[in-house]
Design brief:
Blueprint (H helix, E strand, L loop, with lengths): L18 E16 L2 E10 L9 E7 L9 E16 L6 E11 L2
Parallel strand pairs: 3-5
Antiparallel strand pairs: 1-2, 1-4, 2-3, 4-5
């Protein structure tokens, strides 16, 4: 695996690397435990790019409940994730992707 270059935390425009602003409506909320710590995950529907596109959906994790289904939510998240690889059964080729996680910045 190649080395990752360390960069500054802010672009000249004021946008912070590896962060995003999310605005949408909560579709569902679930609760689970990770290493003895209670976590919440809300599926947030985000606006479509235009009138011909379907709305997007993102899963947002937090240590507190963001709200209930049907409520609007807006917040800043940290974009993180883990690499994922698997073998393609048809070709035997190793495929690479990533599981992206959006975590609320508290």
């Amino acid at each position: 695996m190649g080395a990752v270059e360390r960069v500054g935390s802010e672009v000249a425009t004021g946008v912070v690397f590896n962060q995003a602003e999310i605005k949408g409506r909560i579709k569902s909320v679930s609760t689970f435990e990770v290493k003895g710590r209670r976590m919440h995950e809300a599926v947030v529907m985000i606006a479509a790019a235009d009138e011909f596109s379907m709305p997007g959906a993102v899963a947002v994790q937090s240590t507190y409940r963001l709200g209930n289904a049907g409520e609007d939510w807006r917040g800043t998240v940290r974009v993180t994730g883990i690499p994922n690889s698997w073998n393609d059964r048809a070709t035997g080729e190793v495929k690479e992707s990533a599981n992206v996680r959006l975590v609320v910045i508290e």
